[in-house]
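Entry 14. Structure prediction run on the chain below.
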Amino acid sequence: MVQDNDSQDSGTYRRDVLKYGAAGGTVLAAGCLGGSSSTDRFRVFDPETSGTLPSQRHCNPFNPTQRGTWHPGALICDRPVMYSPAEVEVYPLIVTDWEMADDTTLEMTFSDEWTWHNGDQLVADDWVMQLQMTLSILEFQAEDGERPHQFIESVEAPDEQTARVSLYDPIPETVAIQNATADILGDEGRGIFTKHDDDQWSEWHEQLQNADDSEMETLVGELTSEGYPKVEDAIGNGPFQVADIGDNVMIFEKYEDHPNADNLNFSEFSIHLFDTDIPTQPYVNGEVDGAHNEFPVKDDVKSQLPDGHSLVRENLSTNKLLTFNCGHNVNYDTPFSNANVRKAVCHVFDRQQVSGVLEGVNQLFDWPPCRVPGTTLESGSHDAADWVEDFTKYGQNDTERAAELLEGEGYTLEDGQWYTPDGDRFEIDIMNGSEQKHIGVLKNNLNEFGIKTNQEQVDDATFDERRHAGEYDMMPDTSSANGVRAMWELDLVPTWIQSITHFDPNAEIPMPVGDPEGSSGTKTFNVEEHIRDWRISDDDQYHRELLWWWNQNVPQMEAMFQPDAGAYNGDNWTIDGPDGIVHGIDDALYLVTKTDEATMEYTG
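Output returned:
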C-alpha cells in the first residue's frame, strides 16, 4: 500500500542521478552509453527516483534503502519461480519442478543449467541460504511464542538440486510455493542474490545461525544497512550482466551461458534515468523503448504515443480509496469509530460525479467495497464477481439511507445541518488529498448533505505519523490491487491496513453472507486467523466472509481504480507469452527475457 499525498507518484518512486562507474567491461563516455538510436538494445525507463547514485546502489535484499535489488537486480538475477498474483499461477524458472512430498513438506527441484556470471554453478544452497537468513531475522524480530513466519518453519538443501521447505501446517501447493518465494523482508522475491560460497554472504549466514540474542541486534542492524554488493560489483545469474554504469544509464550485456540466451535476438538491456519521475515524455520521444508502469496515460497524451504502443501488466491495478480512522485502540475522538457513521458517509458519496474527472487514466470502481480488484470484477473472472451482487454498494448519493443510519446513532438534522449526539456540529477533518478530484466530489456531497468538512494538508512525515497514531478522521490512500489473493496477504490487511485504519481485528458479521439484516444471526472471527484459515484450507467460504466483513465495516471504500500497466514500443519490439507472465507479474519486462515460457525480440 502506498501513501497518496496529492501527488500521483507520492511514495512510489525514487529520483536517482547516476554517477560514473564501471564493472566487467570497458568504460564508455556518458554520451556513448545512452544508445538513443541502438537497434540491439532494449531501453527501459528507471522508476527508482530517490537520488541514489548507481555507484551507491546495492543488491542486498535485506537493506531497504538505496537498493538496486529491483532495478537492476530483478534483471540481472533470476528467481526460483515466477508467481503471478493476478492469475494465482506459478511458472517455472530456475526451479523446474515442485511437489508436496507430504502434507507439510514442499520440495523444489533446481535446474542444473543456471550459472552465476563468473561461471560458477548455481545450486539450491544459494537460494536456501537467502531464505534461511530471512527466517533467522524474522525469528529475532518475533515476539515470544509467535511464529517467525506464518507458514514456513525451516528450509534446507539435501543436495545441489533440491530445496526442502518445512511448513507448520498443511497448505495448498500454490500457497506454499508462493509464500516460500515471495518478498518477505525486502526484495528477496525478485531474485537469488546470495551466493552460498561468497565470503561475505557465508559469514553473515553463519553468524545468523549461531548468534545469541545480544549479538543478533548488532548483526541484524549491520545486515539491514550494509550496501553489499554494490550493483557495479554484483555477480548475478540472469540473462544480462553488468557491463557499464554511466551518469544517467546502466548498461547490461547478454550473458551467453544463460539457458534463455539463444532465444534473445538482442544483446543489450539498458536502464535510463531522467529528471522526471514519469516515463510518458521519454517514451513518447523515443528515448526509451519501454516502461514498467504509469500507463495508460491521460487523454491529451494518447495521440502522441507510438503507432505500435503496447501494454504489459494490464491485469495489475491500483485503487484510489476513501480511508477512515476506525478508532480501535487509539486515543483520538473520531466519529468513524462507529461503523454506521462510516457507512453513512459512503452512502452520501456520489461516485458518478467522479466520471467527469477520470482523465482517461482512472476508472470508476462501480461495485460494492470488497477488496477485489476492479479488473477482476470487470472481467467476471472470479466467483467474487457474483458474490458482491448481494453486497451493499454505497456511492450512490443515497441521502435517505445515510440519514437513517445517522439518526439511528443519535445524530440530528437541524436547519439542513447535522449535529452529533453531543449536540456539536458534525464536522469531518480530511487529512490531505486537496488536489484529488474524488476527494473534492466527496466534500461537495457531504457539505450539500449538511456535514461540514475541514481540509488539512500536512507534510509527508506528519501524514505518516498521524495515520499510524490514528490522529485523523479521513484521508485518501492508494493501494495496489494485483490479485484476488494478493489483496488479502497476512502482512497486508491484518498488519499494514490495520495499522493505518485502526479497525477492530475481531469481527462480527451478519449471516448469511449477503444479508445485511442478519436474518440467521451473526458470526464472529479474528480477521488474521480467518485469512490464515482460508490459506490453509483453500475454502472460498472464508474469502467470501472476509469480503462481506470489509463491505459491512468499510475501513476503506474503493472510489476509483487505475490499470497499473507498463508499455513498450511495438513498432520495434514484440513480446508474447502467457497472460500470467506478460500481464500478471510486476517485473514483466524483465521476466520475458528469462524464460522460454515467453518471448521478446527486436523486430524493427
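The chain has 19 helices and 26 strands.
Filed with the rest of this week's runs.
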